[in-house]
Amino acid sequence: MKCRHCGQPLHLPFLDLGSAPPSNAYLSEAALCAPETWFPLRVLVCTHCWLVQTEDHAGREALFTHDYAYFSSFSTSWLAHAKAYVQAMQQRLGLGADSCVVEVASNDGYLLQYVQQAGIPCYGIEPTASTAKAARALGLTVVERFFGVALADELAGAGRQADLIAANNVLAHVPDINDFVAGFASLLKPQGVATFEFPHLLRMVQGCQFDTAYHEHYSYLSLTAVQRIFAANGLVVIDVQELPTQGGSLRVLAARADATAHPQSTLDGAARVSQLLATEAAAGLLGEEFYNDFQPQASRIKCELLSFLLQCQTEGLSVGAYGAAAKGNTLLNFAGVRPDLLPYVADRNPAKQGQCLPGSRIPIVDEAHLRAHQPDRVLILPWNLRDEVATQLDYLHRWGGSLLWPCPGWRSLDEQARTNSAVPPIYHRS
Fold it and tell me: Are 231 and 252 in contact, with CB atoms under 8 Å apart?
């Protein structure tokens, strides 16, 4: 395999999770009677441009289908994040009735609804029919296609260039990252700004967040790699912010490379970019040794999860899970967990309820199932939303139930305090 950005051969391994079906390919009752398609799930590192990436086995059309089941609006904390983003960008860029905002991968309208409420013209670009339909139900305009240079040129030619383009958690999801990024340079107005949010590779490694690896994530991104990709495709990084979302993310602000005296290019922004690049270099991201310890840590967490579930079974403790999330599917399939050890996963998204998780075939139930069965232990699979979910499931304490999450390892809150570790615990409350 060759690097999807620079074309150099890939030799350095990062993570091997065996094989798994696509993490969002949920199974209907009828699909349970048919075979599943599994693909190898290996992640490699380009030692030329330092882009970390999965092997190519599944095309985007096979992963982002018409019945795509991930709807962003089911997370209240993510809605709050989107609303705050719109307010911040409106103030920073002076957006108003004469502006145009575009979101690439607009999903169900979770973000553009706040742009619309602010009276700013906007539209979304979203290839999955299920989420595009939900966005249109909010009165939003959606272009239902995959984004790249061809679509960007078409929209720009029709006078639909943008003052702001938002791209939240999509840069990692594109197989042709060069074509995707080059599209922003075409769709932006000369003085426009594009923002990209994505999980930070440095935080992924430091927290052993191996469950964020799945086929839909073609790339695992550092600022070092992103800056090089942007420079090769007509964009320049003008600012960066570190965010707590998704276990530690970056928000990168970029402008067209041909823009002169860009109003958003500031000394503070340039300093933040330089500082984070230096932080990544100091951490070792530009050397092979940085990537060598990730696999053993992932294997350790897998074994600890299995030991925990087997111990619960031996002690007669009932276990359920919350959140039919892609990262949870990665974890469960890597560990080989099946319904005999984890009988159900609750989720508030009706599009997932009544189906089964891909690979493990664990049934997805509604939250009322938790109240009815009163499990002793509940695993929060989307651990990045643990605070939100912990508040939502606070009623578990009524029957002595406990919440846990599998990142970065199976340690109690007491042990966390004793070791004075900066890594978040998984044992939340009892």
Answer: no
State the Cα–Cα distance between residues 298 and 296, nearest whole angstrom. 5
Q: Per-residue pLDDT averaged across 66-77, rounded?
A: 69
The H or E element containing residue 395 is: none
pLDDT at 419 over 70: no
Tell me how crowded residue 87 is: count the other CB atoms within 10 A of its CB.
12
Distance CA 69, CA 47 (A): 35
pTM listed for this prediction: 0.88
Q: How far apart are the first and last CA of the chain?
A: 47
244: cis peptide before it, omega within 30°?
A: no
Give 155's DSSP letter. Answer: H
Q: What is the DSSP string of 220-253?
A: EB-HHHHHHHHHHTTEEEEEEEEE-GGGSEEEEE
pLDDT in tens, 171-194: 999 999 999 999 999 999 999 999
Spatial strand order of the sheet with 39-45 comes to 12-20, 39-45, 52-54, 219-220
Domains of the chain are: 72-289 (3.40.50.150), 294-429 (3.40.50.720)
Torsion on CA atoms 198, 199, 203, 208, rounded to nearest 10: -160
Whether the Cβ atoms of residue 253 and residue 264 lie closer than 8 Å to each other: yes
Bridge partner residues of 52 (DSSP):
45, 220
DSSP label at 36?
Answer: P
